[in-house]
Write a structure and sequence with these properties.
The chain is α/β, with parallel strands linked by helices. It has 4 domains: about 10-90, no CATH class; about 95-140, no CATH class; about 150-285, Rossmann fold, CATH 3.40.50; about 295-420, Rossmann fold (3-Layer(aba) Sandwich). It is built from 24 helices and 9 strands.
Length: about 425
């Protein structure tokens, strides 16, 4: 695609990158078949190609975002962060929309506030149908039961079992530690069992992806700097051998820190080191080599590959190979490339489209007859669990169980259809 940025505009590193991406588009149309919103809506402007034209027009002409652009960019699930930042800076959203976005940006990355919000949500859940669709969607996604606080969410050093093969920092995240603390607990057990000293570093927290997706760039970069500083200070300023991340949405962002800070002389070098050391937990286990399963279960597992893992990080085979090596029967899902509708805050801000994507995803999952669904991202887990009675667990929970850890609680408990809650 031909672009017409001025030399002055190309002096901005972000505009340079946008120019490179726009020029790579050759109008082939192959993207439409893999775009979740185009598959559902059939509108060219809700396809990658259509959105590229909208973004190109606004960036080249340095125009403020308008209602038409926002209408088609907002429903995009991925890969339009620069456009979202442009909208946030130049477009005046309706009052309620602004307040909801500010609330999400303030609450979700802060576990204490998020826990309080969920407690309030549990009390308000019976009234969800009486509220506007967006607020009602938030209440519907709130869990019926809130797990208690976990010691795994506090700064700590967990020694390796046996000889120390590697020292790793674990990102405990923000929303995940409130919604599903068992994921961090299983990850720590699994890594220490495989010879890793695991550090939960003081000062590390939200990766910044939630506010990044909302276009709240200042907040996103502040979270990123805090993590870079915390991990860089480990082991006498040498950092850790690896930084392990068990939420693929977070992993995609942390692996992007080097790019985010590429033009910042104060942070560029440390950010690049952090990105280079970052691994999804499945990559880490594949590198270490999984122990022989202590108790092969033979359970049939449908593996749901999160978009942030398969598209954002290009990690596709490791989780399935690990599950198979652990004694599970792994089933591929039809249309595995299509999103489940979670995508950060998407299911909160675009509930109607998110619900349709979940229905399609659940139908595809259930078509392979699994006994359990595994995923590597808590957002996907929460989204999918709201539409099926089949237990949904994190991949590390199954790997931990197979190599000597406890059975995941959700496998031991009968479930009703979450969408009826």
């Amino acid at each position: 695609m031909q672009t017409k940025f001025t030399l002055a505009q190309l002096g901005d590193p972000d505009t340079q990158e946008a120019d490179k991406i726009l020029r790579a588009c050759v109008h082939c149309g192959f993207c439409t078949a893999t775009c979740p919103t185009y598959v559902l809506l059939g509108d060219e402007l809700d396809s990658p190609r259509g959105r590229i034209y909208l973004i190109k027009d606004k960036l080249e002409k340095d125009r403020p975002a308008d209602a038409r652009t926002v209408k088609h960019i907002d429903p995009c699930l991925h890969l339009v962060d620069q456009a979202r930042a442009h909208i946030e800076a130049t477009y005046e959203r309706p009052f309620l929309d602004r307040m909801v976005r500010r609330m999400l940006g303030a609450v979700l990355p802060r576990p204490g506030l998020f826990r309080l919000a969920l407690i309030g949500g549990l009390l308000a859940k019976p009234f969800a149908r009486m509220l506007p669709s967006r607020l009602g969607a938030m209440l519907k996604l709130a869990p019926a039961h809130l797990p208690g606080p976990s010691s795994s969410n506090k700064p700590c050093v967990y020694p390796a079992e046996g000889e120390t093969r590697m020292r790793v920092a674990l990102l405990i995240g923000c929303a995940q530690q409130v919604l599903a603390p068992q994921i961090n607990e299983a990850t720590i057990r699994l890594l220490t069992r495989h010879g890793c000293e695991v550090v939960v570093a003081s000062g590390a927290g939200c990766c910044g992806s939630l506010t990044h997706h909302l276009g709240q760039e200042d907040s996103a970069y502040a979270f990123a700097r805090a993590n870079i500083a915390a991990w860089s200070a480990l082991y006498g300023g040498k950092g850790a051998d690896r930084i392990v991340i068990n939420a693929s949405g977070c992993g995609t962002t942390v692996k992007d820190y080097g790019f985010m800070f590429r033009s910042d002389p104060e942070w560029a070098e440390r950010a690049a080191r952090v990105s280079a050391a970052s691994r999804d937990v499945s990559e880490m286990l594949a590198e270490l080599g999984l122990q022989k399963p202590a108790q092969p279960s033979g359970l049939v597992v449908a593996y749901q590959s999160a978009c942030s893992l398969q598209h954002g990080q290009k990690v596709t085979q490791e989780p399935k190979a690990l599950l198979a090596a652990a004694g599970f029967v792994v089933k591929d899902i039809p249309e595995a490339h299509l999103c489940c509708g979670s995508a950060g805050t998407y299911n909160l801000l675009q509930p109607e489209i998110a619900d349709r994507l979940r229905e399609r995803k659940v139908a595809n999952i259930e078509s392979v007859g699994p006994q359990v669904i595994a995923s590597g991202n808590v957002g996907c887990m929460t989204q999918i669990a709201g539409g099926t009675h089949i237990p949904v667990v994190h991949t590390v929970e199954l790997l931990d169980w197979a190599t000597g850890g406890p059975m995941p609680e959700s496998l031991a408990e009968p479930r009703t259809h979450a969408g009826a809650a």
